[in-house]
Write a structure and sequence with these properties.
mainly alpha; 5 helices
Length: 180
């Protein structure tokens, strides 16, 4: 390559003759037709880029919609699980409180607080399958939370041996040493 040639020029460009091995009888087209072909090619390339961009935008939007819907579904599932757990907790608390009341609990709420809520086996209908076992464990562990057998009032107002009621005024007179 000579010094006056640019790297993109071929030997045919510098001296006007085609390089060896090429067809010197190439089809020729008018300058106006070449310009028209270039203009069409340019328009087609621009149109292809527009369509590719539109297709990419549609794919991105579709992916975005899908991701949004998946997030919404995940949030709904989480909320459903949370509400289901709260419902089960409320049903378990109610059922345990009622069973504790029937078993003679002084404070069914206190019994509920003594029970590990995770230990309750609550089915989908709200029934506690291990209620009797849980209540028996609480009664054994915390007998002071339950009234004695046959006592509907929890022993309130009875003296130490459980026989009869005590008159508070008489007890005070006796403690002060007065007779009465």
């Amino acid at each position: 390559m000579s010094d006056d040639q640019t790297p993109s020029e071929s030997p045919a460009d510098s001296n006007g003759t085609p390089p060896a091995g090429t067809d010197s009888q190439a089809e020729t087209i008018s300058l106006e037709a070449a310009r028209e072909l270039r203009r069409e090619a340019k328009q087609l390339r621009a149109r292809v880029k527009e369509l590719e961009a539109a297709a990419q935008a549609a794919a991105d939007e579709k992916g975005t919609d899908l991701e949004r819907l998946q997030r919404e579904r995940d949030q709904a599932v989480t909320e459903r699980d949370s509400l289901s757990q709260k419902w089960r907790f409320a049903v378990g608390q109610s059922a345990l409180a009622e069973a504790a009341r029937q078993a003679g609990a002084i404070s069914p709420r206190a019994v509920w607080r003594l029970v590990d809520a995770e230990s309750l086996e609550i089915d989908e209908s709200g029934t506690i399958s291990n209620l009797d076992d849980v209540l028996a464990t609480v009664k054994t562990t915390y007998p002071e939370q339950f009234r004695g057998p046959g006592s509907a009032d929890g022993g309130a107002g009875t003296n130490a041996d459980g026989a009869g009621k005590v008159d508070a005024n008489a007890a005070l007179r006796q403690l002060s040493g007065r007779s009465g």
